[in-house]
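As a representative case, the lines below give one protein's residues and fold tokens.
***
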Amino acid sequence: MSRDIQPIFILPENTQRTVGKNAQRTNIMAARMVAETVRTTLGPKGMDKMIVDSLGDITVTNDGVTILEEIQIEHPSAKMIVEVAKTQENEVGDGTTTAVVLAGELLKNAEYLLDKAVHPTVIARGYRLAEAKVQEILNEIAETINIEDNTILNKISMTAMTGKGAESSKELLSDIAVKAVKLVMDKENGISIDKENIKLEKKVGGAVQDTELIEGIVLDKERVNSNMPNHIEKAKIALIDSAIEIKNTEMDAKIQITQPGQIQSFIDQEEQMLRHKVEMITASGANVLICQKGIDDLAQYFLAKQGVFAIRRAKQSDMQALARATGARIVNNLEELSKEDIGFAGVVEEVKVGDENMTYIRNCKNPKSVTILIRGGTAHVVDEVKRAMEDALGDITAAIKNTKVVAGAGAIEIELARQLKSYADSLSGREQLAVHAFATAIEILPTTLAENAGLDPIDVLAELKSAHDKGKKWAGINVFTGKVMDAWKEGVIEPARIKTQAFSSATEVAVMILRIDDVIAGGSAPAPRMPPPGMDMGM
């Protein structure tokens, strides 16, 4: 006697499930496609991407993390690769494309081992061994630099900008970047650099060469009254975080007037209160006022009469930056304002930049907050120069904090792959295959540099390997001539921190994706069932 076995539904309706090898293949393919998207942007001859969003806004860039954030990726495994780029950006500020391309290649080589029936956990263990060895080798062969050597820091900055939209002015921009980092560097308790203290202000107009470093702050604001002076030397600056206005009552209030003279005395009283507020500002010696809130029209008139330069509704971040740059203290209560709260700057002036007025607060004595005013012919150019400047600032900061640097141009990757293959030969068991696969994956970076420059990657790799076998650890590829060069002597230098972070995060995400053998994608939530028409929903 046979009974029909009823199917058992464990998962909700519309759930999609991919299991075993299919799940692994799908995940690896999605991650590799992300890596392929940004791969053509790598190196000095990398190309740019144009991304047009649903509103028609255009972004033109070859910055890895910007591309991946703008294209709105949906696949869950692909999103994990995007996280690698974001981590690289947050930790170092550069090397996002390197990290993503490396993660994609690690997964590609893992797929080859999966086809040979090597278990994913064996590959994962081998990859972890390889990554630990890579970190050890990097630490050994990296060069230690003197952070006072601006020549090396300039080379690091120029390497970061090569291949970006800012390349034509990289000498000028690198010089600005190094000076900016040195100005905001704090040496009191070890070396600390907060990149937030370097404000990047964009303004369309002029050329990239017109970009300048202001030892102080640039505010996208103009003075509140045209009768105020537009240029003040030896500026004494008051930062006020309260309105220079007559406060309104909390609730609607009515004032009963019984005699005509009471109206005038009411107006006079308001005027007297505003005059008193202005007198408190001028009594402190301030001739420049930056207010985070509003300034009454009458107060503006009194300030103008006293020759005070005033700005209203400044952003809180700008107020904090001004406090660091000028040494002023932000005051919440005007009654408390004293001479000790005043900050100093060589010059405060209103300057017409493009078609807008901006306020420059410059020549601060020991500014712990500075501004880089980025110029360019179009909004897209300015945006890309800003991204290049962020990469350069990140590289300089990483080099100063860590003091260890390596040569670029594919030199470090070839050396790592060479030493890793020797290490793999010393292992027994199947992990040896995974370490070999890791070493081969590293070679994707010099291969991509050659491909993007229109060179034959096989010939280039053969020449590079030959040079490294002869002990030339900094032999890299000159993408402009197609020849092997000493990357260190040519000034192609990168912080070791870029590489250590890229290898670490790329390995972690590759291992995580490899260990997934079941993808369960939930369907959309079922719509609530409505009662039949006419049925009473109440009890």
